[in-house]
Predict the 3D structure of the following.
Amino acid sequence: MTQLRGQQLVSKLDEDGTLTVELADHDVPAPTDTQVVIRVEAAPINPSDLGLLFGPADIENATFSPGKIVAKMPEAAVRAMKSRHGLAMPVGNEGAGTVVAAGDAPAAQALLGKRVTCFPGGMYATYAVADAAMCLELGDDVSAEQGASAFVNPLTALSFTETMRYHGHKALVHTAAASNLGQMLVKICQADGIPLVNVVRSEAQVAILKDIGAEHVVDSSKDSFLDDLTAAVDATKATMAFDAIGGGKLVSQIMTVMEQVANSGAAYSRYGSNSPKHAFIYGALDLSPTVLTRNFGFSWDVSGWLLTPWMGKLGPEIVGKMRARVLAELTTTFASNYKARVTLEQALSREAALDYNARRTGEKYLITPAG
Amino acid sequence: MTQLRGQQLVSKLDEDGTLTVELADHDVPAPTDTQVVIRVEAAPINPSDLGLLFGPADIENATFSPGKIVAKMPEAAVRAMKSRHGLAMPVGNEGAGTVVAAGDAPAAQALLGKRVTCFPGGMYATYAVADAAMCLELGDDVSAEQGASAFVNPLTALSFTETMRYHGHKALVHTAAASNLGQMLVKICQADGIPLVNVVRSEAQVAILKDIGAEHVVDSSKDSFLDDLTAAVDATKATMAFDAIGGGKLVSQIMTVMEQVANSGAAYSRYGSNSPKHAFIYGALDLSPTVLTRNFGFSWDVSGWLLTPWMGKLGPEIVGKMRARVLAELTTTFASNYKARVTLEQALSREAALDYNARRTGEKYLITPAG
């Protein structure tokens, strides 16, 4: 077959702190065995992509030229990311497109010409390589755009409820809850009968969630926030939280409220309640430190949460069911909304980069390499 | 039998924020069934006792009169401790003394006249009531003072190593490690072959631990602290920490160092290592917030740790073995040192209260009610 050539968006951090994000020419390797080559049609920019793409680099003061951004990375981050120094790393966790070449294995050959969604990394490119077993074939009624975000958010939202069951909790609190992911979680919890407290940061976000039928929506920008949160935690008896924000006092406030609800009516114990309270931090919309005031007894856990190791913990049977559910409900429960569509080159413009790097809830970008 | 009368140290918080700590007259109830009455001879003031005794009240500006302290509690704490408003709560978790009265049950009668150590609460008193099953009888060669701290610190130190095994870790970091508890942990880890990194806050504390043969002792007051900690974590491969301090950045620094050690030589992952890192906060020597910078990937847990629920989790077989070991090694592994001995009344003097409430490592007080 002819050699496929295209472009690939790569991010490179040099030892001196220079971050270069650029479009590089990409000679696509011929697929072997179960590999397929996908002509990428749509790939979302998720917060987890921004970590590799820009990290904490100073994009505001970067130098922009066509197809290239050069920015300065803070010193501490340069040191922490030692093992990526000098490497041009392809970006883009997930996306959808058409299979244009395939290895010899029947599973790969069967996908030739089909539209698929996958999660191989390197999807901000004209072509990407994936393993056939990890691709989900899209139905004729599902566009590439509709199928582009079938992994990160849907599997994360479903894994939240499975993590809850794994640890024996019965109700959840979710922050930055008006996000695409948050809206999916609202729909999952509705369908599965899981009480859910949604914490959002504006009146407009309250409206988004109320519109899709969310019962408990609490606005952290209001003076009555802590009282509202207490009422919602009391109503749901939520004892586990998933937090996308990371920085600041929100996790601590949620734990404090959970502890107050657990203690209401109980006899005084200097050590607090025995009620387990568990917050998982899965994002970093706020890069500042997490501040825990520890006025919530000694029965608490705050943990990092990451999709891949948790899917390993949950095991193939549960993950298989999650994948099947995503595919069946791709245009309903797991529908995503995008603020803007950009080509690979447009994604590296100053205007676009500053806008999507602001990580505002509900303002996600979609890269459409073919334009 | 004659009614036993004595004095009991109680702490009462009123709704208006007034904290009253005083010696109250105490008519000791006649023991029934398996209960015994102990004439208290020695009871330590542990940090966990100070939480109930004073909490965050302003002892510096309190009013002191013989047998009485009246102090102001900060508003947030008054609200958080609603369920203790108006209650005169007896203080003193553990201590040792002689059994002077016993209920009818043979187990109780068998202890009459014996010296025992126990953990019933209310030990800052002339007499205290305990259940016979929860008392450990002291050998003739062990004084009440030697037996006074047989529960809180020894069982906590032993439970740390059991918690480590429970979670599948192999080496530990311990902070405020020059404390009585910390010295016990050094001896346990030596005997059991568990690599241990001791974090202390002064050169003098380094000397205390080196004197008892500790291998890895790191001084957080030195400029080279982070480098020293990294070297010690690298040498021990410690992935679990127990922290007595709570406030500030120390827990975060320990996690960061553990992550750096886990990553050294590994390929770059934007999500950090998969190496589990778990810090338990079991104390609050620093009442300020815990500050987590989260530059240690997503594979981490920070949890509260409390002795009683953990003993429940470990189960009666392990706890039984721990109790037997404590009794056998009370004057060696589990020996405690005290800075000062005070009567009940002396414990409420300004000089003593300010001194022991400073919670300085290695400066523990012992209450000897009989003087």
